[in-house]
Amino acid sequence: MRALQTAATGMAAQELNVQTISNNIANLRTTGFKRQQAQFQDLLYENLRRAGSSTSDQGTVLPAGLSIGSGVKTVATPRDMSQGNLTSTGKPYDVAIRGEGYFRIRMPDGSAAYTRDGSFSLDAQGQLVTQNGYLVEPGITVPQNATSVSISSQGLVQATLPGQTAPQNLGTIQLSRFINKTGLNSAGDNLFTETAASGQPVDGNPGQDGFGNLQQSYLEEANVNAVTEISGLIAAQRAYEMNSKVITAADQMLSSTSQMFRG
């Protein structure tokens, strides 16, 4: 019976939906995390009587067809790249982006990765790095004797040194934008990488040409709404249960048919 296979595709789809929701909830407190949402499409149909086909030699046609669907499939789990709330941390090297853009990170193999997680710190050489020690580009090196460091909304990094009244410019933190943000590849560790779908990065300074501003001593929270996720989880659970009931009903119908033949 086709209903068994059709309902099984529904259960598989909702199982993946629950997995997506569980990942969102698990990353509720992950800095810069962007939630995902499962998207579905119906599978192919078997057309037993096609709508519009001729029903007589006088030109009459079927007003509605007879087609049987074969279930559902998951086609994508795109990320919602909307802005998360900003929260104060009081740490001088924490930086949040308010608006468009990603921090560009140099990976150990020399490739580039991108992130919204601005929880930076200094390494042994005074370079600005991520929590995993990856260099933030373009490289910013803070002198060891710096008494304070400021990061402006336009990305300018300045340090105050002993015996100097004017702060010293250390460089500018740049941002990168993509024409299709949802096309970025999630690489883990709060990092994204470029793909053919995302397009090539466009680099620029914060506050210019559509780039967002920076905010020192703040971090961007995950854009996960706990109430929305729990509502989606309940709906997915109900859909899964209904598909399982379809399988139970189809199995009982097959059992009744089998008993009729045996009788």
TrEMBL record:
Alphabetical list of PANTHER family matching this protein: FLAGELLAR BASAL-BODY ROD PROTEIN FLGG, FLAGELLAR PROTEIN
Protein's cellular compartments: Bacterial flagellum basal body
Family annotation (Pfam families): Flg_bb_rod, Flg_bbr_C, LlgE_F_G_D1
Keyword presence, Phosphoprotein: no
Assembly notes: The basal body constitutes a major portion of the flagellar organelle and consists of four rings (L,P,S, and M) mounted on a central rod. The rod consists of about 26 subunits of FlgG in the distal portion, and FlgB, FlgC and FlgF are thought to build up the proximal portion of the rod with about 6 subunits each.
Annotated ranges, domain Flagellar basal-body/hook protein C-terminal: 215-260
Phylogenetic placement of the source organism: Bacteria, Pseudomonadati, Pseudomonadota, Alphaproteobacteria, Hyphomicrobiales
GO cellular component: bacterial-type flagellum basal body, distal rod
Keywords annotated in UniProt: Bacterial flagellum, Cell projection, Cilium, Flagellum
Originating species: Enterovirga aerilata
Positions of the Flagellar hook protein FlgE/F/G-like D1 domain: 96-159
Entry protein name: Flagellar basal-body rod protein FlgG
